[in-house]
Amino acid sequence: MVDYIAICKDRTTSAMDSFFHVLSFVPADKLTWKPAPTAKSALEIVAHCAGHSGAFASVIRAGKFPATVEEFIGPIQAATQSITTLEQAETMLRKGIADTIAALDTVQPEQVGSTMEVPVLGDTPFNFLLALPARHLESHEAQIDYLQTCWGDLEVHF
């Protein structure tokens, strides 16, 4: 039998490692650079991921999603807005992923195939939420890749 939790843990850890690897190629003078006023900088992307990492851990640990989107987003926004340096973002993201891995360790096998009610999404497979921390980092790593091409770094960093 496939150990879905082990796969999620490995994928999340690998996604974080890859995310930080790609981030390491962002020059210090480009950390806050944006291609447009409404776009996110690399630092804002890392802060976004850091804020969400703790929220994912909370949902997995609780085995349920907060009753409203606002209950979920509020702590994320507070955490994200508290970040002003790359070091703060990295520390928060690493802690959030460590908390996520610990939360995954608490998931019971019967939960993997269950569903939970998620505002906006409705009845959602729990295994979707178990894989979300890795998917989230992977998608935002691609955004950092894109930013690098905007300032002329066309090297593949993986």
UniProtKB/TrEMBL annotation:
SUPFAM superfamilies membership: DinB/YfiT-like putative metalloenzymes (SSF109854)
Pfam families, per database record: DinB_2
Source taxon at top rank: Bacteria
InterPro entries named in the record: DinB-like, DinB/YfiT-like
Boundaries of every DinB-like domain copy: 17-144
Name of the molecule in the record: DinB-like domain-containing protein
